[in-house]
Amino acid sequence: MQTPQQTTKLYSQFTASCFLLLFMFLGYVVKFYPQWLNSFDQLGTAMIRFDYPNWNPFFLWVTKFGNPTTVSILFVAILGLFLYWKKYAEALWLSLGVIGIAAIFNPLIKLFFTRERPSLLHLVTENSYSFPSGHANGSMVFYGTLFLLIPFFIQTNWVKWLLRIICVFLIIGIGTSRIYLGVHYPSDILAGYSEGLVWLGFTYPLFKEKQFIWRFTQKQK
Do 133 and 180 form a contact (C-beta atoms < 8 A)? Predict the structure, then answer.
């Protein structure tokens, strides 16, 4: 009979595997048969931009929470708190995701796919390639990690779920904003989210194991 920890690990890794397959499929299509995604991207873009330009102020605001500068400031602040509280497993997991996946891996993989950005008017300035979306990936990695860590720090139920809802809102809002602002295709966003979910799904069980071991051996609080 499986323990709750084993069951959580199984579901987490299965979910990550599904999103890995989705990312690989999207990457293959974007690299070799990009025309296959035309209908999907055009329909998704039209649905999100149906009330353009009335939503410009909102999406220009929400996209800032996914900008590298904003994420970097929040990351350094939260990392400082983790280190001050001696939460070393949490600090390590957050750092590997933000630095390793969002800041290093995603920009590098863009150079492999070299997908040009949409020809729509860009409401924000972007100079890198389009696939996969760095904002979508970064928001999923950073705010997704916080979503999973919140229950370890907040015990009051309504506060815990309020903070988690804010994380979900930011993840969805940032991804949607990139399409609305004309700098990404929906498939870019889907790939960025998938990339982040692969990281979270495969590493969350490892983080919990490391956290338990370090607490048991008194290497952290």
Answer: no
Q: Which two tokens stand for residue 96?
A: 């590997």
CA–CA separation, 81 and 88 (whole Å): 10
Q: What is the rounded distance in angstroms from the CA atom of residue 185 to the CA atom of residue 130?
A: 8
Asked if 32 contacts 141 with a C-beta cutoff of 8 angstroms, the reply is no
Q: Tens digit of pLDDT for each residue in 76-126?
A: 999 999 999 999 999 999 999 999 999 999 999 999 999 999 999 999 999
Contact between 113 and 31 under an 8 Å Cβ cutoff? The reply is yes
Q: How confident is the model at residue 53 (pLDDT cuts 50, 70, 90)?
A: very high
- Per DSSP, the three-state class of 45 is helix
CB 29 within 8 A of CB 36: yes
d(CA 186, CA 7): 33
